[in-house]
Design brief:
about 300 residues, alpha+beta, Alpha-Beta Plaits, six-stranded mixed beta sheet, 10 helices
Length: about 300
């Protein structure tokens, strides 16, 4: 996964940015962006104090840093680099995968801490629409976001979704689509299913290629599933995309399900399948929901 940070700085930062990045063992890809008059606006969503926003608005420019690592496995490397930029005059940091930004000291406090809750609050936004709430930004950690329908106490459900996200950050569990989740013994289990991220188009920085865990209603029952995870090679979504292009017309349900049934799979340990997915950089379709998910994926690709 690729992590991108937007880091505006003062005049001293503009002059000394090259020296601040010199000698890094794992340097990011770097761009310099001149202030277009909207830098303050990029940090005006309530996480940065007004006086700092004014300083950002007056900044001559910003570095855009691209790392070919995620924010979970590469956190210490990224934090060390941002600390050097702070000393050079950086004012703030915005994670482009969620558009969440903080003043530089606040960002370092969150990501320098050994606290998954701090990382979550530092990187992930909560977006609501049409009776549901979805997180945005978990792909910076190479993890799915979480979506929950608001069918009860809103605050409690938003907290439930946050707990599932932080559980992923803290424990790096192997969660399989169709399993159930509950944060404690007093909370009813809910089925979690992996779906494609439909909030943003695939080429948008906020789009999560690892998809979204959809939390079902309370009291759900887990699917029966084999001990091994059957992984399509190549991925089923790639097979269906190529087949539809070849046909020149939308595939029927019969064609999709027949393709699913005859395509090559490798039986893998679930942890190995998770590692392969992260190496590949995106999640495949859930085979049990292949037709339903393919309809959504192909519509977004048009």
């Amino acid at each position: 996964m690729r992590v991108t940070l937007f880091v505006p700085g003062n005049a001293a930062f503009a002059a000394g940015r090259h020296q601040a990045l010199a000698g890094l063992a794992s340097p990011p890809e770097v761009e310099w962006i001149d202030n277009d008059g909207h830098f303050g606006e990029a940090f005006s969503f309530g996480t940065v104090a007004p006086d700092v926003v004014a300083q950002i608005d007056a900044a001559p420019g910003a570095l855009v840093l691209h790392w070919p690592i995620d924010l979970l496995t590469g956190r210490e490397t990224i934090v060390a680099t941002v600390a050097r930029l702070r000393d050079a005059g950086a004012l703030a940091v915005r994670l482009e995968q969620s558009k969440v930004g903080w003043a530089i000291e606040s960002w370092l406090e969150r990501f320098g801490a050994d606290s998954p809750w701090a990382w979550y609050r530092g990187a992930v936004a909560s977006l609501g629409s049409e009776g549901e709430v979805q997180s945005c930004g978990m792909h910076a950690f190479s993890l799915p976001d979480v979506l929950v329908r608001i069918d009860g106490d809103r605050d409690a459900l938003v907290e439930l979704a946050a707990v599932l996200s932080v559980y992923q950050l803290a424990e790096d569990p192997v969660i399989r689509s169709g399993e159930t989740f509950r944060p404690d013994d007093s909370t009813p289990r809910r089925v979690v299913e992996r779906w494609p991220d439909l909030r943003y188009p695939p080429d948008h920085a906020c789009h999560n290629p690892f998809g979204v865990w959809r939390l079902g209603p309370p009291g759900g029952t887990a699917r029966a599933m084999a001990k091994l995870h059957y992984t399509f090679v190549p991925p089923l979504v790639a097979i269906l995309t190529a087949l539809e292009q070849q046909h020149g017309a939308p595939l029927t349900r019969t064609q999709v399900e027949a393709t699913r049934g005859k395509s090559a799979c490798i039986a893998m340990d679930p942890r190995d399948a998770q590692t392969l997915e992260r190496t590949r950089g995106y999640a495949d379709l859930d085979p049990a929901l292949a037709w339903e998910q393919w309809q959504l994926v192909r519509q977004r690709a048009r």
